[in-house]
Records
---
Amino acid sequence: MASSDTLTRLRYRYLSGRLVGEILSKSWIDSAIPVAALLAVLVALAALIPGVFNAGYIADLSRQLAEFGLVALALTIVILSGGIDLSVGSTFALCVLGALVGMNVLDIGIAASLAVTLGVGIVCGLVNGVLIGYLRLRAFITTLVTLVIYRAIYDIVFPRLASVIVASTPDSPTWDYLGFGDFYGVPVSFIVFAAVALALHITLSRLRPGWRLRAVGGARKSAFNAGIDVKRTVCLAYVASGLLTAMAAFLFSARLGSTGADTGIGMEISVLTAVVLGGVSLGGGRGSVGNAIVGAILVLVLTNGLIRMSTPGSVNQLVLGAILILAVLFDAKWVKNRSKILSRVYVSPTYLALPERSKAAEAAFALNDRLGAAEPIGLGIVEGPEDVVLDADDNLYTGTRHGTIVRFLAPDYQRSEIFARIGGHPLGLAFAENGDLLTCVGGMGVYRVDREGVVSRVADETNRSWLSVIDDSRLRLPDDLDVAPDGRIFFSEATIRYEMADWVTDALEGRGNGRLICHDPRSGKTQTVLRGLVFPNGITMCRDGQSLLFAETWTCRISRYWFDGPNKGKREVFTANLPGYPDNINRGSNGTFWVALLGLRTPTFDLAMRKPAFRRRMARRIATDEWLFPNVNRGCVVHLSETGEILDVLWDQAGENHPSVTSTCEHKGYLYLGGVSNNRIGRVRLPDADPEWTARRDTWGRG
C-alpha cells in the first residue's frame, strides 16, 4: 500500500498533465500551430529545391514581405474590430496608380506623391468606415461592392495613363533607394515595414486604442455598454486599413516602377489566407501583429516555392483556396473547442495525504459554545469581513466585498463610516509603524491607506519564475500580510493559478500553487521568498523579529520561516495535523497566537485528497457546483502557545452566530472575529486576557 501511494504521489507530481493545461491557457498558443506549419514548409522547400534559401532569395522575399505584410496588417486591424475588408486588392491598385501618377506623370516629387498615395488609401478606407461603422451596413457585402467600384475606377483611369507611366522614369535617388536600396544589407522597405509593425504591435497590445479595438471586435454590445464609441472605432479601423494599404502600394510602386491591368487582383484572397492562417480569428477580437506576419511569411514562401517548381498560376490559386478553407475550418473549431479542452485538462489534482488524528488530539478540540454569545458588530452593514484590525484609538477596521474598508468608531462601535474605497475585496489587514493601514486586495495586489483615507498601491507584481509557463509575476490572490520590524512587508499569495472567485478549485488540486512574498519599501522591490506552498493563507510576525508564522490551509499546518538572523532561510513546522483549515494568524497576549480555522476536515474529503484520479474525473465530468469541496461551513478559533501547543479552542456550537471564522484579533481583553462569508463582526470577552494588551503595543512597543 505504501509503495502504491508513493507511485501515485510521483505520478501526479511529475506526470499530471498540468503543463498541457498551462500551455493551452497561453495566448501565444494561437501562434504555435502557424509557426510549426511555417517551419514544416521551410524544411519541405529546402528538401525539394536545393539552395533555394540563398541571400538573393531572402532579400527579394523581405521586399515582398514589406508590401504584402503591410496589407496583411491592414486586414488584421479590420478583422480585430469584428469586420472584414474584401476591397484591399482594389484599394491597393488605386494607391499604386496614385503613386505612379504623382512620380511618373505629374513629377511632383516623392513627398507629394506619398501624400497623394496615402490620401487615396485614407479616402477608400473612410468610405468603407462610414458605410460600415456609422451607417451600420454589413461589412462583407459593403466591401465586396467597394471592391467592384474601386476596381472599376482603376480600369477607367489606368488605360488613359498607361503609356505615360511606362514611358516616364522619375529622377529621384530617394525613390530608387526606397525600392532597391539597403541599409547594412537589409532592404530599406523591410526596415520601414518592421518599424510600422513594431509601432502597431505596441498600439494594439499596450495602448488604449488597441484595447478598445479588441473590445469592439470581441463583444460589440459590451464595448458599447462600457462607454466605447463603437461606430468611431469601427470607422477608424477601416481608415487605418486604407492607410497601411497605401503604404504598401507606395513601396510596391518604388520597387516595380509600373503597374498593370492585373495589379491587386486576387490580393484579398491571398491576404485573407495569410491572416487567418496566421491565427487571427475571423470572429474578431483575437489576433496580433505577430500572427499576421507569420501568416504573410507562410503564404509568400509557399507561393514562391510553387512558382520555383513551375506550378501553373491556377494551381497556385487552388492551393491558396484550399489552405484558406482549412484555416477557416480550423479557426472555427479551435475557437469553439479550445475552452472545452482547457476546462478538461487545466484542473490538475495531486496526491495530498493528511495523517489521521489521534483521540487525544481530537479531545483537545472538544465542542463548546464560547462563540455562541459573541456580540455582533455591524450586523447587515458589512458583507464579507475577511479580516479585522484595530488602531491605537481602538477603532475597528474591516474590508467588504463591495471594495471598501469600513471603520467602526470606538468605544461602542455603533457608528461606522467608509474609511477608504479600494475597488477590490480587501482581505488581510495590518498597521504599519507610522499608522498607515496595509491591505491585501484579491486580484489587485497590496495597497496602503494613510490616516486620511488616501489609497496608494504598494505592489501588484513580483519577480517571475524562470521555469514558469504561466506569467506568475502578477499577483492573483494576495490574502494576508504583516510588517517586519525594519518595515519590510511580508505577504502570502494563496495561488498563482486561480483568481479569487475560483479559490476553492485550488483546494481540489491540493498542489503547491502558493508563495510567500516580501516587499521592501526602502528599495521598492518585491521578491518571492518561498514557493510551492499549499494555499498559504495567514501570516504573522514572531516576537524575535527574525521569523514569521504562515498557514498552509489545505495541508492543515502552520510553519515558521526565518527571514533574518543566523537561521535565515530555514523553515520548520510550527504545528501540524490540525482538525481544520487554518486561515489568518495573529498575535495574542502573553506571547501566544490566535488562529482561525475557516472549516473542518472530513473523512470523505481527506480520502478524496489521496485519490487524484477521482478528483480529476470529477472535474471533467460534472458541473462545478456539484464538485466535492472542503467543508468551510463550520470553523473555530484556536489559541496556541509560543511553541505551537493547543491552549484553548472556541466554538460556535449551534453554528448560527459565527460558524465560519477567517480571522481573529485580540484587543484589550476582547477577541474580534471576521468571516469572509459573514455579514457581521463578532466580539467575545476573554476573561483571563490582559485588558490593556494591544497588538500594536506588542509589535511596536507603544500604544
Note: Residues 71 and 245 are 5 Å apart (CA to CA).
---
Amino acid sequence: MKRAAEFPIRLAEELILLMLDGRTGYLEMVPGWDFSCVMAGAVIADLALENRIDTDPEALYLVDSSPTGDDLLDPTLKEIAESRETFDTQYWIERNTARSEEIVSVTLDRLVEREILDYESGGFWTLSRSVSRSGHYPISDKKTRQEAKTRVLNVILNDVIPDPKDAILMALMHTCDGFKFLLAQEDYSETLERIELISQLDLVGRSVANAVSQSTVKPKTRRVLRTKPIPKLRIFDILGQRDFRTCNIPKAMYDIFRKYGPVVELPFKMDKSKVVALIGPDTNRWVNKKGRFYLRSKDYIQDLEGAFGASRTLPGMDGAEHYKMRKALQTAYSRATLAQRLPELIHYCRSSLRRWNEGEAFRATETFQTHVSSQISHLMIGVDCSHYADELLEYEHRALLTHVQGALPKFMLSTPRMKRYGKRIRELQEAIQASHTPAQRKGKPLDLADAILELHQNDPQFLPETDLVFPFVASMVASLYLGSGLGFAVYSMVRHPDVYDRVHREADSLFGNGRVPEASDFTRESIDVTHRLCLESARMYPVIPWQLRTVMNQCIVEDFEIPAKTRLLICQTASHYAGDLFKDPLKFDIDRYLPGRAEHLVPGAYAPYGLGTHTCLGSRWVELQMVVNILLIAYHTKLELEPANYKLGINPFPTAAPDKKLKLRVAEIRNPV
C-alpha cells in the first residue's frame, strides 16, 4: 500500500481540515445523509480531477478505468467501471454514501500519517504543531500547501480568485452548511452571496454540488433502514444469571450478549426513562467512533455535582467544554508528572507498608483504599488528609450510591453522620487553597490542585469558585477506584505464586541492595511481568464495569433504533469475557498480553478505562502508580490469603471492589522498610 504522502491531498482531507475546530479538537459535523453525500461527492470530484470520469448535468461518464492506487478513490472507481449502465452524478453520489464512514476513517488516518493532525486519546484531533506554526502542511516530500482555512477565508474575504480545486472544495463546504461553523454569524451573512457565486464557478464543482443538494432533499437510491425491535429483558432474565448473583458484572453482561444480542432493554427505568444496555466489541467501537454525536454524560452525574455545590465538572461536561477542561488538566494527570515525583510516591507507599507487621492479617479493600488515598492526597492536592481520609471516602461512597446509582434514598446523604462528614469537604477545600498560594508553591512540582486553581484564575466564568471543590473531591474518589484495583491486583498476584515470584524478581532488580530507582529505570522490559499482571487483573476485575449516558440524538446502533432521552448502560467491559477475543477468558493468563498474542489490542476488546471522549484522563498515571505499589509490596512482603482457600467475592457498589471478606496475612517481611 502506498504512503499517503505519495498522493496529492484529497478534497475529503481538506473538508475534514475545514470542519476541524482547533480549539475543541472536535469535527464540526453531524453524521447523517447530508454529510454522507458531501463526503461521497468529494470522492467523485477527485476522480474527475484525476481524469478518471467526466460529468455533465445528464450523466457521469467513465474516461479511464485504470486504478489510481489510492484506496480512498479506487473502490468507487471500480464500481463505476463495472456498472453496465450509465447514471447521473447524483446517482453515484448517493450510491457512494455507503462508504462515507470508511472515507472519514481513512481520511483521518491519512492526515495523522501526513503529520498534519495529531490524534489524542478520547477521540480528539488537533493540528500538529508544525502546521499550526507555519500555516502550511506537507503534501509531498518537498512540497507544502497553505492551510485550507487560510486559503478559503482569503477567497471569501479578500476577493481572491480561487483555483478550480478550491472552488469545488467551497461548493462542497457550502452544500453541507460548513461555512456556518467557519465564519462568525455576521461574516457569514455578509459573504453568503459571494460563497454562492464561487460555488457555481467550476463545472465539476457545480455538478457535484447540485447533485449533493438534490440528494439531500430527494434521494434516488436512499434505502429505508429497517431497524430491528430491541429485545426486552425480564427481571428473571437478570436474576437467572448466576454471574449477577456473584456480582461478576462483565461476565454476566457478556452472557446476556451471547443470548440476546448487543442491544437490550433492561426491566427497570431511571428517572422515568427506559434503560437500554449496549454490550460487546462492536458497540464499544460505535461508542468510541460516534458516541460524541449522540450521547451526553451530564444527566447521570448532575445530582452528584449538586451534592458538592457544583454545576460544571469534567465528567459532567461534553463537547467543547469537556475538551477544554481535559486540555487544561491533562498535564497534571499525566504519567510524566507522576514519574517526576517517583521518590515521593515510593516514600508514601513505604510509609504505609511500615505499619504492616509479620504474622498479622488485614482487610484488603479498606487497607488498600486508605493506602492509596494517602498517596493521592499528597501527590495530587498537596494536603495531608490522612487523619480524616476515611470520613471523606465514606461520604463520597454514600454520595455515589444515592446520586449516581440510586441504590439508596437521597435523604441518606443528610443523616447527622453524613452532615458531619460533609463538613470535612469544606475543610479539604480550605486546606488546599491555603497551601497553594504562589509563595508556598514556589519551586514545587505541579499538582492537580495547581492546575485547577490556575484554570479558575485564568477563566473564572468557565470554572467558577463554586465548582472548585468537586475536582478536589474527584481525586479522592479516584483513590477509591485505585485502591479497589490494587486490591484485585494483589489478590491475583497472591493467588498465582509463580507470578508472585516473577514480580518479586523484578522488584529485587529495581529496589535490591538499597537502590533508589529513577523513572527511567521503569522500562517496559524491567516491569514486564508486573505490567501484564495489572492488565490481566483489570480485564478480569474492572473497577468500573459500565458507564451511564443519555441519548441526546436518536441513533441507530447495530440496526437497533434508540430514541432520544433513553438512558444507556454502556457495558464496555463485557467484551473482556469474549472467548473469540480472549483465549480461555475465565483463566488468569498474563501471557495474553505478549507481543505474539496482544489480545487486548483488538479494537473494542479491552476497555477498563472507559470509552470515547470520556476515557479516563489519568489512565497512564494509574498504570505507573499501580506498578510501583505492587513492586514495593512484593519486594518488602510475602502475603498469603487468610484463609488459604478463600474464593474472591466482589462488592459491586458503588464501583466494583473485593468484598470485605478478603483478608491477607503478612507471612514474611522480606525486606524491612
Note: The chain has two domains: 4-217, 282-669.
---
Amino acid sequence: MKKNTSKLIACILTCSLILGGCSASSVTGIPGLLYETFETIADIVEENPEGLSPDVPPSDIWTWPDTEEHEEEYDWGDGLTDDDLPDAEDGTVTILMYVNGSTLETEGGYATDDIMEIIEAGYSENVNVVIQTMGTKYWSRKLGIASDRAQTYVVGKDGLELVRDNLGQLDCTKAETLKDFIEFGAKAYPASRNILIMWDHGGGPAYGFGWDEFRDEYENLSLDEMIKALRYCNVHFDFIGMDCCIMSCLEITYALREFCDYMIVSEDFESCLGWYYTDWMKALYADTSISTYDLGKTIIDDMIYKNEKDKFRGDRSILALIDESRMDKLWEVWTEFAYDNEEALLKTNFSQEMEGTGKGADHVLGNRSGKTNALKSDLFEMLIDEAIDYLTDGGSYEDLYFDPDEVYISDYCITDMMCLGQMIDSDHSEKLMKAVDKAILYVSATSDNLSLTGLAVTLPYNDEVLYYDLASVLNKCGFDQDYVEWLRKFCDARTEKEHIDWESWGEKFWNEWGEYESSDIWGEW
C-alpha cells in the first residue's frame, strides 16, 4: 500500500480563511460524487470560472460489476513463443505500466499526478509508454480517463492517446488481466528492451499487489498469479518496478528472477508521492541504451529526495535496485543461515518496528539542488493545495489525530536481512551479509529510515493467519516444501520485539545510503 498522510492542521486553518466556509458541493452544485466530475476545487476554478455545474452526466454506478470472489481457471493454452512475437528494432523500448489507481486515485488523484509527470517528460519515437488504467471508481477528469471501464493509452506527441476503449471494467487482481495487457503490449509495441511497472498498493509476498475498488477488499494479484501471467507471455524485462509498498522481499525477488534482469522495489511503505517519473523518462528518451543502473539510480534518488523535502506529503522511504542474477545464490545463503540460526531467530522477533528505530540524525542527503522543479517550493502554495485536497476528500478534524487503519511494516513481519546478518553471530552471518550486499546494486533512504537496508525476508512471528496466507502463495510458486513447513515454527515464537537501532550497529558498518554502489568490503565471491 501507499500511505496517504495528512499533515494538515495549518492547512485547515488557512483554507477556512480563504474559502470562507464554502463546501465543495456548494461550489460545484453537485451533491455526492464529487470525484466523478472533478478531482479538486482547483479543477473547478480552472474549468468553470463561473462556478457552475458542468454539463457532464455522472457514470452509472449500477453498471459496475459485482464484487464476488473471482475464480481463476488459467485455460490459456501453452503460452507465447518467440514466433508469436513480432521482431523488434534495435534501440527501441516499451514501458508497460499496469496502473490500478484504486483508493489512491479516488482519494487524492495520485495516479493522475504520476501520469502527468510521464506526459511532462515528453515523447520519443523510440520509446513506447503503454498505460492501462483500471480499478478506480473516481478518476480525476484532468486527463479524461474513464471511471466506469478500463482503458489503454500510449503517450504520443500530444499527450495521452487512447488505443483501447472496449475492455469493460477489468479486474486488476486477476492474472488474466495482467497477462492480456503484457501480451497486447508485446505484440502491438515490440521493442528490444522492455520494462514493466506495477502501480498501486502492495502487501508483500503474502498479499501481493493491487486493491481494485470494484472488488472485494481481500482480493489481490498474488505472487503466483504474477508468475503465471509472466510465464505465459514469454517477455523478458530489463527491469520490473513496483511503485507500491513493501515488495522488496526475498520471496518476491527470488520468485520473479527468471522474468527480469533487475527489480526496483521498496522495503517499507511508500508515501502517496511514490516515484517521480519525469527525469528518468527524459533520460531514457535521450538515450535508449542508458544503463539500468543509471535509470534506477535516478528513480531512487528522485523518490527519496521528494520524500525528504516535501514535509506535507512525504514520509520515511527507502527504494532499492536489486540484481536478479544474484537471487539463486542469495536464496541458497539465506536458507543455510536460517536453518543454522533457527534457535536465535525463534528466540527474538526481529521484524521491523518503525517506532523505536534509530533515526540517523547525522545522515545528510546528497545535493539535489537541480530538482526544485519537481517539488512545490512555495510554502503557501503547498498549504493551499493540501487543504483543498483534504477538504475535497471530506476530511474531518478527527482524521488529523487518529487513523484506525494505521499499520506498520512489523504487521507484515518485515525482517531486514542485513540486520539479521549483523545482529546474529554465527558462521553464516558474514556470508549472508556479503550475499545481500552483492544483490543490492543501489539503495537510498530518507534520513529518518536508516534502520532498513533495502531487502527483507518474511518470518511470520506470532501470526498464524499471515503464515497460512504466505504458505499458500509460496506453495503455489513452487518454493521448497521443507522451507514452507519450517516457517510454521514462527507462529508460536512468543517473543519480545527487537528494535533495530541504527546507532547500535549500523554506524560503523552500513554507511551505503545515498551515493551507494555494491561495496567492496566483502571482496569477490
Note: DSSP finds 20 helices and 13 strands in the chain.
